[in-house]
Every structure is written in C-alpha cells, then in structure tokens.
Amino acid sequence: MKQLCIRLLLSLGFALVACTPAATPAATSTPVVATVPAEATATAVMEMVAPAESVTITDGAGRSVEIPVAVTRVVSLAPSTTEIVYALGKGDTMVAVDMFSDYPAATADVPKISNPDMTYNYEQIATLKPDVVLAAAITSPDAITAIEKLGIPVVVVGTFTTTMASVQADIALVGAVLGVSDAANAMNQQMQATWDMIAAKVAGVTTKPKVFWELDATDPSKPYTVGKGSFISDIIATAGAVNVFADVDNPYPQVSIEQVVIAAPDIIILSDAAYGVTAEQVIARPGWETIPAVKSQMVYPIDDNLVSRPGPRIVDGLAAVVAIVHPEVK
C-alpha cells in the first residue's frame, strides 16, 4: 500500500484517504460530462471586503479565504494547480512549486519547496513572501495550518471526488484568484467542447473492449487498479470501453491474478509505465498468459499524468485512451 500511495501522491490527482489524512470532507459526485455548472462560477465569485486591498473567496474546501486583490506571487503545492496556473497564462506569478510539478517545461526553473516525503520547507515559503499558496484536496491539514500561521493565505483547489465539472470548478477558482476569470471561463468552454466532440465520436462504436487499468504492480500477483469512484473509470467508459473492475466499490482496489484472469480484459493499459513497467514484462508474467489482452499482446503504456492530474490536460487523457481502445476512431 505504501508504494501505491507514493505513486499516486506524485500526481496528486485522485486522492486515497489511506495515504494521508483528509483535508476536507469528500464532495458529492457529479456527472462526468456536463456543461460548465453555475456552481463553478459561483465558487469563484469574490466578495469585496477591503476594496483597495483584499477580497474573500470560497475555496474548494468550502472555506472563506481572504487574499490580496492583485495576486502576483504564487506558491503551488500540487502539479494539478501548477498546470492550471500556467495554462491560464500566469506562469510568471509562480515563485515556487512542489517537487513533483514538472509540466510545463518552464517549471524546471522554478524553486522547489517540498521533499519526497511530502513535507514542505516552511522557512523557504516564508522567505518567498507569496501572496497566496495554492494547495490540493490531498494536502495535509497540518501543512495548511503551518502555512497559514506564517500569515500566508492558503486556497484549497479541488475535492476528493474528481469529475469533469469539478475540474472546471477548479479552473474557475484559480482564474478568480489570479484575476483572469474570463480566461478561465474560455478554457472551460473549450475543454467541454473538445470533451463532447471526442465523446460523440465514440458514441456510435459497435464494440466496447474490456479494459484492465494497471495503477501499480509492485507485486504483480496483486496489482492495484481503478474501480467505482475513480475518474479514470469514468474516462474509460466515456472512451467507449468497459472497465473490468468498474463495479468494485473502491476507487483503487487491489486485485488478484485470478480476478484479472476471470475478468478476461481485451486490453491492458499501464499507467505505471512511468515507473519502468513495460508491455513485455506484463506479457511475460507467470499466470498472466491466459488473459486475452496478454495472448493478443494488447498491452499499452499511457502517460498517467494526463488522467491523474485534475487540470486542463484531462481532455488529452481522454483522447489518449480513445486512441488505445478505439484506434479506428479519428
């Protein structure tokens, strides 16, 4: 379990409660494909409390946070929030990021303020004098408290239940914090249009291949996968395929070889490819030889960051899954 937690924490996308204490209560799930909800805009609405100096916003955790009117210095504690800031054209405000923020390439030149064990250099954060720190739903409550004790406002971006609508709400929130709500709204509309276009292309497919999504196979006899409650499972369905463990009442269950064999997936997608797992290794695993996907060598790597970081690139993640499960769809 520890290895899986570390790997999932690298992306800070779909949080496991077992990995770290919950910073906020889980949000209520909403449909995957939806137009930009009114709530997304409402979440980002600012109430003027000191017209020339500060405003109060409601963050993703439902907290009221007072921030400067003009935010010019930002620290991000998660790759997902980092990507949103850059996508909104405000990368020049970033004064520090967590060590796992590696996209876009410009983040390589930004100071890192976290350690591999997910702790933070609070002295460095204080020295940088950010106007606001952007945290994620998975960020430790202790870390948020420690930063706020420095007199620095912390805005939590995201919830424990990720959907297309919640990602749009995150983008709207960051846009409001940075004073670029129009750009955030335009981005949300473009994302929705692209998502709907891709979904429409696969809506008429006549076959829906069964997919096994491998999250972590540190122990190949008991790999972790995705089940009910995981946004990745929703992406698989939207892409015109069937997640073989979609009915498991756990977003990140650990399953046995026997369960995978019985599920008989037609395709295996390796989101642990970034950690050195290859299709050749999977095909050679003892006990896996009778699985249809292995027999036909339909085992494919995928860039896990596209689907595990709740930000603008989730649409690219959907397109990547479609390319694997329905290559005939152009």
How would you describe the overall organization of this protein?
By secondary structure, this protein is α/β, with parallel strands linked by helices. Helix content is 35%, strand content 13%. It contains 13 helices and eleven strands. The chain has helices at 2-11, 38-43, 79-87, 122-128, 141-148, 164-178, 181-202, 231-238, 257-263, 279-283, 292-295, 305-308, 314-325, and strands spanning 47-50, 54-58, 64-68, 74-76, 94-97, 132-136, 154-157, 210-214, 242-243, 267-270, 299-301. The strands form three sheets. The chain has a four-stranded parallel sheet with strand order 5-4-6-7. α6 (164-178) packs antiparallel against α7 (181-202). It is globular and about 65 Å long. 48% of the residues are buried. Residues 1-51 have low confidence and may be disordered.
Give the radius of gyration: 20 Å
| Relative helix content | 25-40%
Number of helices: 13
Major β-sheet annotation: 4 strands, parallel
Strand order of the largest sheet: 5-4-6-7
Which percent range describes the beta-strand content?
5-15%
Distance between the termini: 39 Å
Q: Roughly what is the average pLDDT, rounded to an integer? A: 86
Number of strands: 11
Report the principal-axis shape. globular
Unreliable spans are 1-51
**Which sequence of SSEs, written as H and E, runs from N to C?**
HHEEEEHEHEHEHHEHEHEHHEHH
Alpha-beta content class: alpha/beta
SSE map:
Blueprint: H1 2-11, H2 38-43, E1 47-50, E2 54-58, E3 64-68, E4 74-76, H3 79-87, E5 94-97, H4 122-128, E6 132-136, H5 141-148, E7 154-157, H6 164-178, H7 181-202, E8 210-214, H8 231-238, E9 242-243, H9 257-263, E10 267-270, H10 279-283, H11 292-295, E11 299-301, H12 305-308, H13 314-325
Parallel strand pairs: 4-5, 4-6, 6-7, 8-9, 8-10, 10-11
Antiparallel strand pairs: 1-2, 2-3
